[in-house]
Design brief:
This protein is of the alpha/beta class. It is 49% helix and 17% strand. It has a five-stranded mixed beta sheet with strand order 7-6-8-5-9. Strands 3-10-4 form a three-stranded antiparallel beta sheet. Strands 1-2 form a two-stranded parallel sheet. It has 15 helices and ten strands. Pfam families: NMT1. This is ABC transporter substrate-binding protein. InterPro entries: SsuA/THI5 (IPR015168).
């Protein structure tokens, strides 16, 4: 993504940035190509932050700053940021290593789907043996979830019965799928429509379904969460609760308002095709998690246990989720 496009996105946010006045401020620093920006934009555009008594300051960060949890930890611990997002396994890992971070609200089931040519004979998990399967990398959570589900429900591990091909990047994986270098590929959810809406490809296995089966809960289970520094939460719990309320309002608006998505596609997406933009909209609506409770958190623990049994604590970087990682009621 060009610097010009990133600046254009930031300008879309800045149009709705006003002075905080006496309101407490939450400083949000989010990736310029991450889907949480749709929710944050909605909060700013409709003033949901002010409605709930705080000021949300959003800055989109560029590729140079996207270096994983180390950067997230530095932003939160360093005092320059109050709000970021990442998957809850990373939150648990960094908290276990002493990071002053805590998950305070769900974001969504940020997983992907297995995409294959329309004429594929892959109909489900039981058909993966003997196939060449593409992933961005071996520790991709889509692949680990698939292995866990195959072991749990079909008594085999596709890591032993299929051929895994690592693409190293999402763009390279898309090329491999298009060129037929693999029988199917596990692509991240916002990129699935680029294949299924523009070419002869189908999503044969939504990984979100495996998340729900493995977690054994009917509540939609988040993989990614919003997080803040624990010291920030202790110092200003009202602002954190206000963000959660504003996020719920934004989700409600994004689920109901199709016209809003036309504006988002124009100002925040790289997608020119309206059909693909609508598919991203529908995927976001299926992915997002509006709220969570004790049942949701219990499911997140169960899912972690499945992932640890497949990948191992060394690969995940943490043997268990530390106490206090999740705060459903901050």
């Amino acid at each position: 993504m060009s610097r010009r496009h990133i600046d254009a996105q930031q300008a879309a946010f800045d149009e709705y940035h006003d002075e905080p006045g006496a309101l407490p401020t939450m400083r949000a620093r989010f990736e310029h190509n991450g889907s949480p920006r749709y929710l944050l934009y909605t909060i700013k555009r409709f003033g949901f932050d002010r409605d709930h008594g705080f000021h949300l300051d959003v800055e989109l960060v560029s590729d140079e700053l996207e270096s994983g949890m180390e950067t997230i930890r530095e932003r939160l611990d360093g005092g320059g940021t109050d709000l970021v997002d990442t998957d809850y396994i990373s939150v648990a890992r960094e908290r276990a290593e002493g990071a002053d971070i805590v998950a305070i609200h769900p974001y969504g089931r940020t997983v992907g789907g297995l995409v294959a040519p329309e004429e594929t004979d892959i109909a489900g998990l039981e058909d993966l043996s003997g196939k060449r399967l593409g992933v961005t990398r071996r520790l991709d959570k889509n692949w680990i979830l698939t292995r866990a589900a195959c072991r749990e429900f079909h008594d085999f591990d596709p890591d032993e019965t299929a051929t895994l091909v690592e693409a190293d990047s999402r763009d390279s994986l898309t090329r491999m799928i298009r060129e037929g270098a693999v029988d199917a590929g596990f692509q991240f959810w916002p990129l699935v429509p680029e294949l299924t809406e523009t070419g002869p490809f189908v999503e044969v296995l939504p990984i979100s379904e495996l998340v729900q089966r493995l977690s054994r809960t009917d509540r939609k289970l988040p993989i990614a969460t919003f997080l803040t520094g624990e010291s920030s939460l202790d110092a200003n719990p009202a602002a954190v609760r206000a963000f959660a309320a504003a996020a719920r309002d934004a989700v409600d608006r994004l689920v109901a308002d199709d016209d809003l998505w036309v504006d988002i596609a124009d100002r925040l997406m790289r997608v020119d095709d309206p059909t693909t933009a609508r598919a991203v909209r529908d995927g976001w609506r299926d992915m997002v998690v509006r709220d969570w409770d004790a049942e949701t958190v219990a499911g997140m623990y169960r899912l972690f246990d499945h992932l640890e049994s497949v990948a191992g604590a060394e690969a995940l970087g943490v043997a268990e989720i530390p106490d206090g990682t999740f705060r459903p009621e901050p």
